[in-house]
Fold these 2 entries.
Entry 1:
Amino acid sequence: MKVIIASGKGGVGKSMLCSALAMLFAKERKIVSVDCDVDAPNLAIWLNEIGNWDKILPVVTSAKPEIDYKKCNSCGLCVKNCRFNALELKKGKPELNQFLCEGCGACEVICPQKAIILKSVQNGEIRIKKTKYSFPLVSGQLYPGETGSGKVVTEIKKEAEKFKHDMMFIDSSPGTGCPVIASLQDANFTLLVTEPTPSGFSDLKRVLKVVEHFRIPWKLVINKWDINKKLADKIKKWAGRRLLGKISYDKEIFKAIANLKPILKTNLKVKKEIKEIFKNLNQLWSDQ
Ligand code: SF4
Ligand code: SF4
């Protein structure tokens, strides 16, 4: 069973919830935890598992053009047809800005002199370790300025599949882009997390469109529900029976994470609230 923790907006508590649920479910089942937030992976921090990776694997899922200047006749067609403005004619020759290039390959196709060839590049890495909680953590990172986040996510999930497991807990990227779509593919259940802010609620509805496109069953958790009780109530009414639980706002959570203390190792109210969500999930799945 693949459980995706997703949200539209960032910073709503996905990783906190994913790390705690992974630790709780690991007591009963064989699980694997997966960090698919390749632009800002932080599940390792919430699990107090930073560094000391057992394995770091390269990911090569992007490509950049290589220009053969001997063949180039300075026609400028590649520059005109690059939608990302990654090519610029300098002294009559096209020059590439690596950070703007999306590796789409249009320049290779358009070049009449066959002077451009797309070459594969390493755009990220996958990090794997066995955690002290006896389940593996598979994480990954898209390198700064690189493209292909969705493809990196797909590779991370392939590595995670290699571990024997009953359940996979996936911490997704925020938003609705490629890494989120790649995370949601073949998921069995989505736990959406939101906060009672206008952007939190609006981004939740956006990501829900993607979740519903894939016809994945979902439930909702409202984090920091007490920062705006009126809006939290509105979201609660909107979600109806989909609401699985609420988590209170507590400044102490930030202190705990700054000291690399997993939520389940604290005595904060949030620990009790997450345990309640865990109980509700267990109940839900045992009823099915
Ligand atoms: S399209 Fe080809 S020939 Fe024309 S400027 Fe670009 S690299 Fe040179
Ligand atoms: S691969 Fe695409 S984005 Fe990169 S330089 Fe060529 S046309 Fe531009």
Entry 2:
Amino acid sequence: MSRPLRVGGMVPLTTLDYPGKLACVVFCQGCAWRCRYCHNPQLIAPRGSDELEWSQVLAFLQRRQGLLEAVVFSGGEPTLQDSLRGAMEEVRALGFQVGLHSAGIKPAAFAKALSGADWVGFDVKALAEDCQAITRVVGSGAANWRSLEHLLASGVEYECRTTVHWHLFEPERLLILARRLHRLGVRRFAVQRVRTARMLDPQLPGISLQASLPELWQTLGELFAEFVLRD
Ligand code: SF4
């Protein structure tokens, strides 16, 4: 039997993290990548200083049956924990829809988690050849894009999202990335402008300025059935 899910924190109520549903977010502890702009650096280590017991989370969810509609497993990188799949089943048995936020760090583990999810917010870091400059991990681009293929083949509802810090991303590369996603059949794409208040890499500029890019956003809006620009 696998160990209980390591949970680094929780947001008890959100309307933003699962489309159209009242949800809570469970932040899974631990990540294998080191994205320079990561805004949850406290969730990267395998063990956190403010962990919740999984049994506490379940007790909370039992009290919210009939009030909340979905539970989103976020991180960190949830799919790195063997116990995620079982935790998803427990949540489903309580009557909740299951959401997953992931960057698909390990494609086989991601594919396994995918089979337990109703909706996925999938983090496309960058073009595969550009990923390492963000994640600082060799091979991260291949893993990220392999997992994306699993997602698109699965039929599970999803949104692809890319976080942009303009110090790490050229607008031209974002356009190439979007066209590549379009060719793969991605229909829902969001660009999220980075939150600079807290980032893993202290060397990264605290501002992410770029001239307004109306033509780029218009082109992206035409490429996808649904496109969102998010701050
Ligand atoms: S932003 Fe990067 S380092 Fe931070 S949790 Fe996500 S994948 Fe891991």
